[in-house]
Write a sequence for this structure.
């Protein structure tokens, strides 16, 4: 594959599998918890919180505790974004991604052992896994800012983003079968092992930039540098324009929109629990049904990036096309071609840092949504369907508001402060990725 494909497409395909690996580690608990825990139980005792010596017995976490367990990953994920961008600037984005993935995969494999020690240790491990994987999308945005020609960004981002729903569509039923037939430990062991394999391959074949790749074809290097060389000097060579970024209304529009749009996305955490709780189906059936909307999302991600790039190539303004796509999308299906691609459009050289801030705000929904669901389920224990109805309606309203904010206030061009470094650069000095 690496010898025949252009290196930028090798990066994109590996990024897709990386997104799959991340999703495996992020959502393995969503399937396993149906087998681990009596999801209808409201009881609680200390022995059920991880001190039992029998790992095959069910835990009896109430709805709030299930929300904490499902959302714990996102505590770490939400706080690590900006620090990850800083590490990528100083130590290399590809290198940081690979090392973080290795450590997160090892911790995932150890989850059954950590649960035997104590529930709190398990929560701490999930927070650490989230913090380590918080580097991925942030640093990938920075890598695409260096590797992706302007007219290919939609394709590259869409293919990468296909990995998450595709992994969930595969992982939900597979983890359900593993949990029910082999034991709830196996979703953690198998997904962690997949992460280790991906990490090793990534570190072997991925490089920081076209100019640093030892085997890239000269024509491809010239194509990439011609496309982005005059547009951006990557943020590894200059100080981040923090003041300009933080006072930019356009940046704040995508921060707020990202926060609100993620509520429907993180409902996926609760799909197996919802199906079991409302329809009283087993882990296999609930996991299988949970993957159906995710298959639709994966197909949309894969196809719409190509469509959007084709429309932009015909001369239509990129910002207008991205906003139109974002406004018409349903349940956060194609944000790769909308809000995520607009981050690179508005400030290519600082896209990793801005994406880190944006993704941090969005990932807050990762622990707010399951805990909000837990509160609703507790308050409506006599009418469980009502709790889920309120949750779905709130989620829909959140996405509609996000769409309006992005379309009205979102970026429409390269921001002036994002051009500043290029304007001050000596024209005789070559641009360095």
């Amino acid at each position: 594959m690496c010898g025949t494909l252009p290196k930028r497409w090798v990066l994109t395909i590996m990024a897709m599998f990386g997104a799959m690996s991340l999703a495996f580690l992020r959502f393995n608990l969503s399937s396993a918890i149906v087998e681990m825990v009596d999801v209808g139980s409201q009881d609680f005792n200390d022995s059920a919180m991880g001190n039992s010596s029998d790992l095959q017995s069910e835990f009896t976490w109430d709805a709030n505790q299930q929300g904490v367990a499902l959302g714990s990953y996102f505590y770490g994920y939400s706080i690590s974004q900006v620090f990850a961008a800083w590490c990528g600037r100083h130590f290399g984005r590809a290198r940081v991604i690979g090392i973080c993935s290795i450590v997160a995969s090892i911790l995932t494999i150890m989850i059954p052992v950590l649960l035997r020690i104590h529930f709190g240790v398990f929560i701490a491990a999930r927070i650490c896994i989230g913090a380590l994987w918080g580097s991925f999308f942030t640093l990938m945005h920075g890598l695409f800012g260096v590797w992706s020609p302007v007219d290919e960004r939609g394709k590259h981002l869409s293919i990468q983003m296909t990995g998450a729903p595709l992994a969930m569509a595969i992982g939900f039923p597979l983890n359900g079968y593993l949990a029910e037939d082999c034991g709830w430990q196996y979703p953690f062991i198998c997904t962690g092992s997949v992460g280790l394999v991906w990490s090793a391959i990534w570190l072997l074949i991925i490089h920081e930039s076209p100019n640093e790749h030892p085997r890239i074809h000269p024509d491809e290097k010239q194509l990439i540098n011609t496309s982005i060389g005059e547009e951006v000097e990557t943020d590894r060579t200059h100080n981040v324009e923090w003041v300009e970024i933080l006072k930019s209304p356009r940046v704040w529009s995508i921060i707020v929109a990202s926060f609100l749009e993620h509520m429907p996305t993180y409902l996926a955490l609760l799909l197996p629990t919802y199906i079991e709780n409302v329809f009283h189906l087993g882990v296999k059936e609930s996991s299988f049904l949970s993957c159906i909307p995710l298959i639709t999302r994966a197909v949309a991600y894969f196809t719409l990036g190509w469509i959007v790039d084709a429309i932009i190539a015909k001369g239509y303004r990129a910002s207008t096309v991205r906003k139109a796509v974002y406004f018409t999308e349903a349940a956060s299906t194609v944000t790769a071609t909308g809000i995520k691609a607009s981050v690179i459009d508005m400030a290519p050289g600082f896209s990793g840092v801005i994406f880190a801030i944006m993704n941090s705000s969005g990932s807050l929904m990762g622990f707010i949504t399951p805990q909000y669901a837990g509160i609703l389920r507790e308050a409506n224990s006599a009418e469980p369907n009502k709790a889920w109805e309120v949750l779905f309606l709130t989620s829909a309203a959140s996405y509609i508001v996000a769409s309006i904010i992005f379309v009205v206030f979102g970026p429409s061009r390269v921001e002036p402060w994002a051009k500043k470094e290029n304007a001050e650069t000596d024209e005789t000095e070559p641009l360095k990725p």
